[in-house]
């Protein structure tokens, strides 16, 4: 068990409950473990009591992975009644405010005797806020690659702050983290952002690299910013954690809220990333085009390359949605070309059977093969992410060579690379709604004094999730999970698992692992 897991059980000696980082904000959740992910300073201070508390509560099985609160390091911060009390939108809601006791369970498929497991705080407006609206100076920044819906999140943070809380002072930081110290800010009002959700990209522009925590926090302090909304992927959220830690170290009343973004859908804990549905939908157009092309010629072979550096979610879902795909190749599932059970054998069978076929490949798949054949320097982007080799043309050449040279069978290759087309578009209707919920959750959380947190749905219910949970591990397609099995069942493609590996997978499957 994690040493930062502590118990708030009523049997605890009171000193534990009085340590600032451990103290619940309102009514404590009774009889629970609280995993606060405290910043290094607090974990150092609390090491002994935390370990002792764990020992005392070994039998308790309810874990709350809590997010930090400004009062953890500013204990005398005053609070105010939430202005939503009087808002025309919320005053008629039956339970306007989310109770401090409301939590969201990470696992909802459980067995009768399973432990209650990990929970997160439910997102939403709280009875008390820790900012007077007229004293809020918020800023929004977008970093990393694009994804559909960023503009909707920006719009809804601005409109949410303004319409729900009466906040008027909102700044846009342009071109990512480096914009904090190298650019002027732009004033964001509901009028300025009114139409931006209809456009792809980010109204505030973006960049990679350039994260300098000291300079960023200096700038936040100099400008009198007290709420920071950070939209970006895993790298961006790591940067957000640094900003939160530095602001806390300096004792600044600055709430840092992260809205995780990635087209690859590889953010842990959250159900899915915003813009992902839109991207999968757009990918259908490329797959359809490939299918139409190859269906119309003799021995047509279509290849569609989609994004997905380390995870094949876009490829997997686009394949499952389409039904025209014969084979889906993803980074998590190593494939091989030659021999029994290999890709060539399968493609030959499909061509004999149907006269055409479509392959979808995620950009991160087969990197080891490409690397072995092309002399490429190990290049990185400005943020330090490894630049991938282009697997699409490599695969297309391999298949062409195999059929025309080895099998003496001419094929008609149609290669489509819609990489940027699927992420540079505006979000669809359902992603727009999703983005609105994310933005509102972030606004409610920051106003309520939470900081160093991210937002997202866990089993469909929106929650406040510690930043570390979304940065420590990337979500990947589980080869032993049901979704990948559904894909294999749908395409009937080889699993590319040799018999030795099959045994290992069966062993893993027989362990008590549940998958969605
Ligand atoms: N470990 C880190 N600590 C502080 N800042 C970081 C860290 N990693 C990345 N960043 C900063 O976060 C920003 C975005 O990072 P990156 O380019 O990796 O994109 P990302 O947020 O992971 O999005 P995506 O990968 O989905 O495009 C950059 O400005 C980068 O400097
Ligand atoms: O070319 P860019 O903008 O660096 O982004 C490419 C990368 O960004 C991602 O979309 C992640 O955001 C990856 O799938 C892709 O490899
Ligand atoms: Mg990333």
Automatic annotation (TrEMBL):
EC number in record: 2.7.1.11
Catalytic activity as recorded in UniProt: beta-D-fructose 6-phosphate + ATP = beta-D-fructose 1,6-bisphosphate + ADP + H(+)
Binding, substrate: 262-264, 307-309, 363, 420-423
Active site: 264 (proton acceptor)
All residue ranges annotated as the Phosphofructokinase domain in the record: 138-444
Principal location class: cytoplasm
Family classification: Belongs to the phosphofructokinase type A (PFKA) family. PPi-dependent PFK group II subfamily. Atypical ATP-dependent clade 'X' sub-subfamily.
Name of the protein described by the UniProt record: ATP-dependent 6-phosphofructokinase
């Amino acid at each position: 068990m994690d040493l930062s897991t502590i118990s708030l059980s009523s049997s605890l000696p009171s000193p534990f409950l009085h340590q600032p980082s451990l103290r619940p904000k309102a009514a404590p959740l009774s009889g629970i473990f609280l995993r606060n992910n405290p910043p290094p300073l607090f974990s150092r201070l609390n090491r002994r009591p935390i370990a002792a508390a764990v020992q005392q509560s070994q039998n308790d099985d309810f874990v709350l992975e809590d997010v930090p609160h400004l009062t953890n390091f500013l204990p005398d911060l005053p609070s105010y009644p939430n202005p939503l009390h009087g808002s025309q939108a919320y005053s008629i809601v039956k339970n306007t405010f989310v109770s401090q006791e409301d939590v969201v369970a990470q696992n909802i498929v459980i067995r009768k005797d399973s432990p209650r497991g990990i929970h997160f705080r439910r997102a939403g407006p709280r009875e008390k806020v820790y900012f007077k609206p007229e004293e809020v100076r918020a800023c929004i920044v977008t970093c990393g690659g694009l994804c559909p819906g960023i503009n909707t999140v920006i719009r809804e943070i601005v409109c949410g702050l303004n319409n729900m809380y009466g906040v008027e002072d909102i700044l846009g930081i342009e071109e990512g983290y480096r914009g904090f110290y190298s650019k002027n800010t732009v004033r964001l009002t509901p009028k300025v952002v009114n139409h931006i959700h209809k456009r792809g990209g980010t109204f505030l522009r973006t960049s990679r690299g350039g994260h300098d925590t000291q300079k960023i926090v200096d700038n936040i302090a100099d400008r009198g910013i007290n709420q920071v909304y950070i939209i970006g992927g895993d790298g961006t959220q790591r940067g957000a954690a640094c900003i939160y830690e530095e602001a806390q170290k300096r004792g600044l009343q600055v709430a840092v809220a992260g809205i995780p973004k990635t087209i690859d859908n590889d953010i842990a804990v959250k159900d899915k990333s915003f813009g992902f549905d839109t991207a999968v939908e757009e990918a259908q157009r490329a797959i359809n085009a490939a299918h139409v092309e190859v269906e119309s010629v003799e021995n047509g072979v279509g290849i569609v390359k989609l994004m997905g550096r380390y995870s094949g979610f876009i490829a997997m879902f686009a394949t499952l949605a389409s039904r025209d795909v014969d084979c889906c190749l993803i980074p998590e599932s190593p494939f091989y070309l030659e021999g029994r059970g290999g890709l060539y054998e399968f493609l030959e069978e499909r061509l004999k059977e149907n006269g055409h076929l479509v392959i979808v490949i995620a950009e991160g798949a087969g990197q080891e093969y490409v690397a072995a054949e092309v002399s490429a320097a190990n290049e990185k982007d400005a943020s330090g992410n490894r630049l991938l080799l282009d697997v699409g043309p490599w695969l297309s050449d391999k298949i062409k060579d195999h059929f025309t040279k080895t099998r003496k069978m001419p094929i008609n290759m149609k290669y489509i690379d819609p990489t940027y087309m699927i992420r540079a578009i505006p979000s669809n209707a359902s992603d727009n709604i999703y983005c609105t919920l994310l933005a509102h959750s972030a606004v409610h959380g920051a106003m309520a004094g939470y900081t160093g947190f991210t937002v997202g749905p866990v089993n469909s219910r929106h929650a406040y999730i510690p930043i570390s949970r979304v940065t420590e591990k990337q979500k990947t397609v589980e080869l032993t999970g049901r979704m990948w099995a559904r894909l294999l069942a749908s395409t009937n493609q080889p699993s590319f698992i040799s018999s030795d590996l099959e045994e290992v997978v069966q062993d893993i499957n027989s362990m008590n692992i549940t998958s969605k």
